[in-house]
UniProtKB/TrEMBL annotation:
Domain DNA-binding protein H-NS-like N-terminal: from-to ranges: 28-89
Protein name: DNA-binding protein H-NS-like N-terminal domain-containing protein
Amino acid sequence: MSMTTYEMARVLEQLDESPEKIMFGKLLNELGNQSAERIQSAAKQVPVPVLRDMVYQFQQVIESRKDEQVENLAKQIADQGISVDELKSYLSSK
């Protein structure tokens, strides 16, 4: 029984830090570096239900990484010598 590329990717996603998972991440990263036209052209070859599931999965990752982004911003702000109170004051004045 053969698996589709998408089914294979879902199985590999479950493996932790396997070479296949790392390569899949690199593939996604490279896809993200392509032009909108190339991405859309490739996406047209994928069934709509699969595209919807992929979009849902990406949205889940984006939501889970928001805290990571906030933490990075907080560190950058602290590194620049801006206090929490100064930031709150600035944000409340806007």
